[in-house]
Amino acid sequence: MHERIIILDFGSQYTQLIARRVREAGVYSEIHPCTISVEEVAAMQPKGIILSGGPCSVYDEGAPQLDAAWLRLRRADGSPMPVLGICYGLQAMAHTLGGSVERAPRREFGRAALRVDDASDLFAGLPSGGTVWMSHGDHLTRLPEGYEVIAHTDNAPIAAVRARNAPHYGVQFHPEVVHTEYGRQILENFALRICGCSGDWTPASFVEEKIREIRAQVGDRHVILGLSGGVDSSVAAVLLHEAIGDQLTCIFVNNGLLRKGEWEQVQTTFRDHFHMRLQAVDATDRFLARLEGVVDPERKRVIIGHTFVEVFEEATEAITRELGHRPEFLAQGTLYPDVIESVSFKGPSATIKTHHNVGGLPEEMGLEVIEPFRELFKDEVRAIGRLLNVPEAIIGRHPFPGPGLAIRVIGPVTARALALLREADAIFIEELKAWDLYDEVWQAFAVLLPVQTVGVMGDERTYENVCALRAVTSVDGMTADWAHLPYDFLSHVSNRIVNEIRGINRTVYDISSKPPATIEWE
């Protein structure tokens, strides 16, 4: 394993961003709950530790505290462990060491100009006066013994600190967010300059190591993988095929909830282009029969999930008969955010969707699980896909929900509603690409609303469906803003939809951001 930096999660909404920024510096980073023991982390032999922000005050009942043992920790070579506390992480350090943390006279949220007092290490190469992002209600009013101020703002006399006799640092702002002007360089300084990491962790090195690891794990046995045609499962399939060839069989289930042309496109790509063993199962009728009359989105997810497991098991039995023995491994495209959600110090996240395959297949089928991307973020998977020559049409594809179009048909799922939605969605995506806007948005799709409105087409009065268009910009999907698409573009798309799709006579554009809305409607 490469050098690593461990991030202790105190519940910040930005914790994943810290890991991403450290990895951008070429250093592998892992997130663990702040409740993990010092001994467990010491056994991982990290090069440094970052303490995340968090929503609590250090004085709140039940607020996570920092054991002083973390600040006495040493690395494998006997040197003191570098530590960087961010916002709550800084306050937890100060509180543990006898400093004073108090409620600020006013909550500081937003941009501030950072005045650098010492640019010798954490702020090396940074100009004074750069913008940083503040988000805190408490602040330090007295430093712990042995600490000194290395940066301030007009509102925060203690904006960054350093221990005089140990490589321990703290910042009151959030260097991980894009609003902090030199945040990436600050985290790079910590990882490379202070922790002494070499910065040699790259997607290419990951591919080489993962292929060796898969070959050693699988040996001469057989692996099955549920292929959806999305980025994660597609790149996982190509990586596994690179490692073990025909010892991999992919199972592609048509649940009747795919986008236009997807059933044919996935088969062509993986059978003809990559020459993979592919078991394609069209279970459209079964899924739609079970979804008939169902309106509640959670019930939709449960039905789709259970039916998928059933169809997948049947496909596995067919593969078993073909091979003469049962496959021993199940591969999945699980990503690091899914893993982080499930080990949060606050407990398993309620936001994990019940349709996520990780939750059902392994227990049901008794197979050993291979998750080659469980340490990676989606942008890293995309980079690996490009190294493996996965077509850009797959790599650059927008995220698509596990339940497919079922949660974009608001109300009962019917064959007619799905047909209308497929055509509208295809027009929207086709025009985004034609106008060179597809790669400018994080996700775009159409939603069919359970609303009919009066319209006039020619001399005829119509009473037909409303289609909503949704497009958002985002870095990672955790927060999102509605995409400010050109009016001429929206007018053109609307005109195509209502003229070309009999059954839709009105389009609307969703201008809600996340939060307070979610990206998907259900």
Query: Class of the largest domain in CATH?
Result: Alpha Beta
Main β-sheet description: 9 strands, mixed
What radius of gyration results from the CA coordinates? Answer: 26 Å
In spatial order, strands of the major sheet run 2-1-3-4-9-8-7-5-6
Mean pLDDT: 89
Structural overview:
The protein is α/β, with parallel strands linked by helices. The protein folds into three domains: 191 residues, Rossmann fold, CATH 3.40.50.880; 193 residues, 3-Layer(aba) Sandwich (Rossmann fold); 96 residues, GMP Synthetase, Chain A, domain 3 (2-Layer Sandwich), CATH 3.30.300. Helix content is 33%, strand content 24%. It contains 15 helices and 18 strands. The longest helix is centred in the middle third of the chain and has 27 residues.
Describe the SSE topology:
Blueprint: E1 4-9, H1 15-24, E2 28-33, H2 38-43, E3 48-51, E4 83-86, H3 88-96, E5 100-116, E6 130-142, E7 147-152, E8 160-163, E9 168-171, H4 183-194, H5 203-218, E10 223-227, H6 231-244, E11 248-254, H7 262-273, E12 277-282, H8 284-291, H9 297-323, E13 329-331, H10 336-342, H11 361-365, E14 368-370, H12 378-387, H13 392-395, H14 415-434, E15 443-457, E16 460-473, E17 481-482, H15 487-500, E18 504-509
Parallel strand pairs: 1-2, 1-3, 3-4, 4-9, 10-11, 10-13, 11-12, 13-14, 16-18
Antiparallel strand pairs: 5-6, 5-7, 7-8, 8-9, 15-16, 16-17
Helix pairs in contact: 1-4, 5-6, 5-12, 6-12, 8-9, 14-15
